[in-house]
Structure formats: structure tokens, C-alpha cells
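User: quick one, sequence for these C-alpha cells?
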């Protein structure tokens, strides 16, 4: 209850700060760092009210549209999160096992994240669309999931290496003295020691998977997800700025939902707080 109350208090403070900033700048006429008006900073009540206004010819409200778009993007992000986590964990386990790979392969893993995702997304989405495997071509949303996985694997890889190497050397030597092989040490000692680090990476990866899914939707011209909604409402921003603001809030809410799911699973799996491993 304390954490829920704290979250509500922080949300109320942010809303008050937004409303107060908007009122003060509009009242005094200040123009730094930007002009504040109904276009640059629409009021919170107009954003909430826009959720119940129809945005489709069939009368569909903005709230209904954002819920459907969020579910579509959530499917892409969930698959991307799963693929990126599996690849990241496997790659991190191999790097942690062989020290020479940590020096030879890790720099390239880091360098892969320096390439702008907006430059990679079109190449991956369009390129995978030209691949045919036994008459099967990946669908649009599957190709978008690859972009999400690309952003997800990096934090998982880095924290997997750190976590697997965090096992107490004395415990490792003790298990070896009992004739335990490397596979047994991995499952019984290294992996349990790495769980706090892994879930720390999963929390980060859960949010960036949503970002990757939204970005991946842009070059694929998918209109069913949040990326398509952002492009659509961005074109009519001057007329209805509150629609784009509401879409951004929906994307943020989706990222928070993914984060909370990981936190809930962490509480079931990890019985010791990660702070004790710092």
C-alpha cells in the first residue's frame, strides 16, 4: 500500500507540475524555452476528454483505438523480448564461459548498439520481407519483433556475463572439489547467483522492447500498432495535438505494464533483493 500510495503521489505531483507550468507560462506570456499554448502543451483535461471522442468514421473512440493498437504492439514487443532475452542469455553464457570471447566478441556486441535503430529498422523489415523459407515469408509483425529483439538482447547479454561471473570463487572451488562438472556448477551455482542481474536486465529490456516495436512499425507501414497511430496523429498534430499526446501516454503505459510484469515474476523467482549482490 505504501508503494501504491507513493506511485499515486508521484503521478499527482507530475500532473500538478505540468498544469502549473502550463498555467504560469500562459499567464505571464513567457516564451523560454518555448511558447506554451494549447498546441505545444494541451491541457490534461483536453487529453483525457479526447480519449472519448470518435476518431474513426465508424464512431470508434480514441480510447478504443489506443487499446487495440497497444495490444497489437504488445504482441510484437512480447515476442521481441522473448527472442532477445534468449539470444542475449545464450550469448552471455558463452562469453562468460570462455574469457577469450569476452575480449574478442564483447566490443562488437557493444558496437552493435551504437548504430541508430532508425537506420537498421528499414533494412531489417524490408530485407526480411524478401526472404522465403519453404514458401513462407515472415509477416510484418514478425519482422518488427526482430527490431524489438535487437534492442533487447544487449542489456541481457551484458548482465548475463556479469551475473555468471559474480559467483563466489570459494563456492566454485568447493563444488569442483566435489567433482562437479562445469554444467553442474552453471545450473546450481552460477545461474542462481546471476538471477538478480538477469532480472535487472529484463526490467530494462522489457521497456526497450516496446520502443523497438514502435520504431519497427514505422518503415513497415503497419497501421494497427502504436507506431502507425503516432504517424497518423503526427500529421494532424496542429488540429488535434491531444490525440498524439494521448498516444504517447498509451505507449508509456504499455512500457510500464511490461516493466511491472517482469517485477512480479522477479518477486516469485528471486528470493533475495538484488541490492545484496551489489
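Assistant:
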Amino acid at each position: 500500500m505504501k508503494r501504491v500510495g507513493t506511485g499515486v503521489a508521484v503521478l499527482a505531483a507530475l500532473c500538478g507540475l505540468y498544469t502549473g507550468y502550463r498555467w504560469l507560462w500562459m499567464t505571464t506570456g513567457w516564451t523560454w524555452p518555448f511558447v506554451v499554448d494549447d498546441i505545444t502543451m494541451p491541457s490534461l483535461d483536453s487529453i483525457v476528454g479526447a480519449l472519448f471522442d470518435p476518431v474513426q468514421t465508424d464512431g470508434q473512440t480514441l480510447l478504443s483505438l489506443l487499446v487495440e493498437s497497444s495490444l497489437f504492439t504488445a504482441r510484437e514487443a512480447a515476442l521481441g523480448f522473448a527472442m532477445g532475452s534468449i539470444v542475449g542469455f545464450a550469448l552471455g553464457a558463452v562469453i562468460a564461459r570462455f574469457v577469450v570471447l569476452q575480449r574478442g566478441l564483447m566490443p562488437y556486441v557493444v558496437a552493435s548498439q551504437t548504430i541508430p535503430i532508425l537506420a537498421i529498422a528499414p533494412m531489417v523489415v524490408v530485407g526480411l520481407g524478401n526472404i522465403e523459407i519453404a514458401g513462407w515469408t515472415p509477416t510484418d509483425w514478425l519482422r518488427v519483433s526482430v527490431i524489438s529483439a535487437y534492442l533487447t538482447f544487449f542489456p541481457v547479454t551484458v548482465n548475463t556475463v556479469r551475473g555468471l561471473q559474480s559467483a563466489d570463487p570459494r563456492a566454485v572451488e568447493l563444488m569442483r572439489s566435489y567433482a562437479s562438472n562445469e554444467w553442474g556448477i552453471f545450473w546450481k551455482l552460477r545461474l542462481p547467483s546471476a538471477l538478480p542481474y538477469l532480472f535487472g536486465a529484463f526490467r530494462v529490456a522489457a521497456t526497450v522492447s516496446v520502443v523497438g516495436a514502435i520504431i519497427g512499425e514505422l518503415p513497415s507501414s503497419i497501421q494497427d500498432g502504436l507506431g502507425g497511430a503516432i504517424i497518423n496523429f503526427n500529421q494532424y498534430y496542429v488540429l488535434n495535438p491531444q490525440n498524439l499526446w494521448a498516444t504517447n501516454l498509451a505507449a508509456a503505459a504499455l512500457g510500464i505494464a511490461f516493466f511491472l510484469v517482469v517485477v512480479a515474476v522477479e518477486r516469485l523467482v528471486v528470493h533475495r533483493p538484488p541490492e545484496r549482490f551489489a
